[in-house]
Design goal:
The protein is about 0% helix and about 50% strand. It is built from no helices and 18 strands.
């Protein structure tokens, strides 16, 4: 499946309430906001993205930002996050009310945190993003990277305000 924003439309995919969402194959490109914004209010929600190219968006490739007190999880496998404002972002305090991708990849730096926010990125690339290739902003936001290529971004790996990025097997 392909989503082409032609620099119009906000987010290609916005998840507000869902226990599980799976996206396989295709391309998400040219939106004026995020490729995928997962802010599901469903406790323990899970996003799986596999074999998908998320590129050329003015916002984040993927932003996982569950609301206060809610746990969110994502598994991103064999994907590419290239030429976005930021590649993959895990945010403990949610997205900014008014989008600003020059400020912490559109994430709040304080507030009431999600109960958990875990993003696993495996065998994927984050290349040529204006800001961070990978960002974890605020505790308990955590990104676990395995076999990924993160190169030519404004900042490669950006753990911020207590967020964690755990690397194993970066290329």
């Amino acid at each position: 499946i392909n989503f082409q924003g032609i620099h119009a439309g906000l987010n290609a995919i916005q998840i507000n309430t869902a226990a599980s969402v799976r996206i396989e194959g295709g391309e998400i490109a040219n939106f004026i906001d995020d490729g995928i914004l997962d802010q599901s209010s469903t406790p323990g929600s899970k996003l799986v993205v596999e074999g998908t190219s998320i590129n050329d968006n003015a916002g984040d490739g993927v932003l996982v930002a569950p609301p206060s007190g809610v746990a969110g999880n994502a598994v991103l496998d064999h994907d590419s996050f290239d030429n976005n404002a930021c590649g993959v972002v895990a945010a403990a305090f949610g997205a900014l009310g008014t989008a600003s991708f020059t400020t912490n990849c559109d994430t709040n730096s304080s507030g009431s945190a999600a109960s958990a926010n875990s993003v696993v990125v495996a065998d994927s690339t984050a290349d040529d993003n204006t800001g961070a290739g990978m960002m974890a902003n605020g505790s308990p936001a955590e990104e676990q990277l395995a076999g990924d290529l993160v190169t030519a971004n404004g900042t490669g790996l950006d753990p911020l305000d207590g967020g964690k990025i755990v690397e194993s097997g970066l290329k």
